[in-house]
Amino acid sequence: MTRNNFVEITQRRYEYAMGIDSRDFGLLRSVFTENITMNFEDYNGLPETKLRADDWVESCKPLFLGLDSTQHIMSNPIVTVEGDTASCKMQMQAFHFYQDSYQKEFSIGGYYEDKLFHNGSKWLISAVTLNIFWTRGARDIMGVATKRGHAILDGTN
């Protein structure tokens, strides 16, 4: 593995986080291959799903637009490369904030396991698995924020 591969592969994970936290959904979409596998079973109890990256990014908008702010922090990347495929494990903490009568927070700690593919010009994420070590706070804000985000997208908020 070259230093350039390591830097570019970890950069995709950082861009993923920045895309979510800055609500730059174009940046978020840019880190993925056309079709992806997403596994958030530790978070939502649902098995992994294969779908178009465009569809997954669209599905994220209500939640993240409905929250007042988020911050995803990544550290300690472990990267392996085999030809035009790679994997990256990276520890994470995700902080989600929602304001109603007072500010509420829901936080997650764990790690991401990503699979990546080199398309000839850059590394792209083809699969994501979230593994959770701990959660803290008001998890219910995630559903409330998603409803608020749908209202924002529908123009009724």
- One letter per element, helices H and strands E, the order comes to HHEHEHEEEEH
Based on the structure given, which CATH architecture is correct? Answer: Roll
The class by helix and strand makeup works out as: alpha+beta
- Principal-axes geometry comes out as globular
Span between termini? 49 Å
* Share of β-strand residues: over 45%
Number of structural domains = 1
The residue fraction in helices comes out at 25-40%
Q: Biggest sheet, open or closed, and with what strands and sense? A: 6 strands, mixed
Structural commentary:
By secondary structure, the chain is of the alpha+beta class. It has one domain (3-154): Nuclear Transport Factor 2, Chain: A (Roll), CATH 3.10.450. It has helices at residues 3-21, 25-30, 41-44, 53-66, 141-154, and strands spanning 32-39, 49-52, 69-82, 85-99, 103-118, 123-137. Strands 2-1-6-5-4-3 form a six-stranded mixed beta sheet. Strand 5 (103-118) and strand 6 (123-137) form a beta hairpin. It is globular and about 50 Å long.
List the topology elements.
Blueprint: H1 3-21, H2 25-30, E1 32-39, H3 41-44, E2 49-52, H4 53-66, E3 69-82, E4 85-99, E5 103-118, E6 123-137, H5 141-154
Parallel strand pairs: 1-6
Antiparallel strand pairs: 1-2, 3-4, 4-5, 5-6
Helix pairs in contact: 4-5
